[in-house]
Amino acid sequence: MISHGGSLSSGRLPARRPALAAAGRTAGIAGAVLALAAGAVPAAGAATVPSAGDARPPTVAAAPAHSARATTWAVQPTPNPLIRGGNLAAVSCTSPTACVAVGWRINRAGTQVTLAEVWNGTSWSVRQTPNPPGARQTELVGVSCTSATSCLAVGDTFSPASRSMPVAEAWNGISWSIQQVPNPPNGGVFNGVSCVSASACVAVGGLSGTLNNLAFAGVWNGTSWSLQQTPNPPETRESTLLGVSCISASHCTATGSYGIGTGTATLAEVWNGTSWSRRKTPTPQTSGSLAGVSCTSASACTAVGSDGNGESLAERWDGTAWSIQATPNVNGEPTGLRGVSCTSATLCTATGRVQSSPGTPAAERWNGTTWSVQQVPAPQTMTGAGLNGVSCTSASTCTAVGSDGAALAEAWDGTSWSVQPLTTPLGTVGSRLTSVSCPSASTCMAVGNYLVDVGNDRAPLAEAWNGTSWSIAPAPASPVAPSFPGSAFLKGVSCTSANACTAVGYYSNSSGGLSTLAESWNGTSWSIQPTPDQPGSGEDFLQGVSCTSASACTAVGFYSKPGSFIEFSLAEEWNGTSWSIQPTPHHNTSVDHVLNAVSCTSASACTAVGSQGFETLAEAWNGTTWTVQPTPHPEQGQHLLQGVSCASASACVAVGSAYDGTLAESWNGTAWSIQPSPGPVTNTTAVSAGVSCPTVTACAAVWSTGHRTIAAGWDGTSWSLQQTAKPADSTVHLLGSVSCAPAGGCTAVGYYPTATGEFNLAEATP
Fold first, then answer.
1. Which residues pair with residue 322 across a beta bridge?
2. 234: which residues sit within 8 A by CB, 6+ positions away?
3. What does the H/E/C string look like for 66-132?
């Protein structure tokens, strides 16, 4: 007999349709506890087995026997994929083989810190950068190099006093060091910098005023920084400078924007070595801002940015006046330009981002007469990508940097743009296990999902227990692009042996909807099994699965139709060759019918549970049809069943959520009845629950209520509470799925949130 357990975040509260993030539905636990997580859909109970890592089959090792009624749980260390997130904001190249790019990343403590990478003509490498002591977050947004061994980067740091302060760091070819910058009284930031020598640099940005922000500049003389307030347009009390370009120590041009009415107007100012003066610039009717500027002489400057509609904007200084140049938008979509680099008055390259969701990198080229769009490869990412800065050393050599969730670099060779391999240090954690299946005490497989970037995109996660440790078993992302994580979730898993597991879930399809997902484990690797979607549906989810053999599995979930908020139950069957849909009853089409979990004792005997409207739902499969089994309901509130486990066709236990916390019901072959609640009244409904019954008189169950986990054992007569283990660095730990091996031993999985991310959690009875 294979045990069946519920899945974390399994069970969806009826008549409460969760919002879909780019990657899927947001789970109640994640949203309430940690905004970092993208959230998982209510998942179903499923049989459980080995979770493998390193794409190697788990080795069988002896393990102590467990009892479903054991009262002591212990934490098992589980690996957590780390998010490779970062952003490169600016780049400066002194030759085709010498570039320095700067930006920021999120470190393992969840803090935003500086990032710098160096290009040597062959590859990019990360160079360690300092951060001001005690800073809550620091970023570098501008860089200027006068040689391969002399660069100055600027940005800002959020001080312990909760003020943004300008920051500057110097590169000497070997290491970075922080320079002392005077602190403005109310704070401020540097947005850009330009150097003509190691001892002559000008940085620009914005000061924090008591009412509004004001543009300002800083001058580096090789020894120290001095701050200068630049002239503010008389018609405004708010302005900022975003970019600067110097052709000599006594001639710099800075651009930005200032507030006017309900919008912004473009701004340009000039430094003559002694003072700043404003130059009048035209502004599109919809307002605009100039983000970057590049000058090749005192009479030839090009500035780029975007107008009030987010469309590309370019302006040209000819030594007498600024004028707007006609610029195209990529594929007709609004295209914001962020950086520009000119090698002559008649040759400039600008980069930015196509604003359409999820966003793609953009590049445009000026030939002295017109601007034209250049084709830029877009990395496959659901979070979008953009190029923030660009530096050209010749007509045929440019380097642009930005982000596609992680740091991004692309190169122009005179003919085309290409992505350069670039490594960003690993950062925060965003990982959770939602379901587990254990065919023996020494083999378990757990599945879930993890964050693949600093956005909300998640990828499938599978981990295997070999009796000694957990390891990651890489799972493909989706049928759309198996090599690209994108948005895909594994919600339930069922294993009949260490070499035969089936996991189900859903993924974001190429049409912008959600489709069912099934994957199979052969003891060495995972592979995708094609699954059908309900005809005419817009979103399809598989929540749980139960297998009685490698060629007999049943998966359940729900689907919705385009334009409808009603959800209908979904069941699919695996016959060893293909998946097919089984019709399920929908007696009342005005309320949701959601199946969250399933447990099968044979190919012709399955029980699925979930919710119908605000009430519990149970359905039975007899090998031919699904029929509804009447279930009792508590007297008040909303109720749903989230996990189920059957020791025989006439002995099932289902768990879920009641208005005051936990809910348990049992099937005796004839009728369902409510069991006395195993948990204390919590005044909080359970957002996930799972149960596993290796025998009629031995069950283990877990419930998570959003702020606590409740575990209990069933002896055939009553439930008794069990103490779960709390990870050392967490105040909340959430278990939503459990599996007990036939010969003894129970394993429960979930996750725990901390200030630095979400971490996988696995616990087992000794």
1. 317
2. none
3. CCCCCCECEEECCCCCECCCEEEEEEEEEECCEEEEEEEEECCCCCEEEEEEEECCCCEEEECCCCC
Distance CA 492, CA 9 (A): 11
Token pair for 414: 């005179």
Specify the pairing of strand 312-317 against strand 300-307: antiparallel
User: pTM for the whole thing?
Assistant: 0.72
Q: Give residue 303's identity as a one-letter amino acid code.
A: A
| 673, 720 Cβ separation under 8 angstroms | no
Q: How far apart are CA 275 and CA 206, in angstroms?
A: 17
| 255, 267, 551 from 258: Cα distances, Å | 10, 6, 67
Long-range own/partner contacts, residues 283-290 (CB < 8 A, 24 or more apart) = 284/308, 284/313, 284/324, 287/260, 287/263, 288/257, 288/264, 288/313, 289/242, 289/256, 289/257, 289/264, 289/313, 290/242, 290/243, 290/255, 290/256, 290/257, 290/266, 290/315
Burial zone of 356 (CB within 10 Å; 0-12 exposed, 13-18 middle, 19+ buried): middle
Other C-beta atoms within 10 Å of 321: how many?
12
Distances (CA, A) of 400 to 91, 444, 709: 7, 46, 49
Q: Which residues contact 687 (CB under 8 A, 6 or more apart)?
A: 9, 11, 27, 28, 29, 42, 657, 704, 705, 706, 736
* Among 662, 634, 500, CA closest to 576: 500
N residues, the chain: 766
Mean residue pLDDT of the chain comes to 86
What is the DSSP track for 199-235?
TEEEEEEEEE-SSSEEEEEEEE-SS-EEEEEPPPPTT
Domains of the chain: 4-69+78-82+429-685+725-741 (2.120.10), 86-419 (2.120.10.80)
Residue 659: band (very low, low, confident or very high) from pLDDT cuts 50, 70, 90? confident
Beta strands in 345-467 (DSSP E): 347-354, 360-366, 371-374, 386-394, 397-403, 407-412, 417-419, 429-440, 443-451, 458-465
pLDDT digits (tens, 9 = 90+) for 376-400: 998 766 567 899 999 999 999 999 9
Say if residues 641 and 656 touch (Cβ distance below 8 Å): yes
- Cα distance from N-terminal residue to C-terminal residue, the chain: 21
Note whether 668 and 693 are within 8 A (CB).
no
Q: Between vectors from CA 583 to CA 580 and to CA 586, what angle results, nearest 5°?
A: 150
- Which helix (DSSP H) or strand (DSSP E) does residue 308 occupy? none
Q: Are 233 and 242 in contact (CB under 8 A)?
A: no
pLDDT tens-digit series, residues 241-295: 999 999 999 999 999 999 988 889 999 999 999 999 999 999 998 899 999 999 9
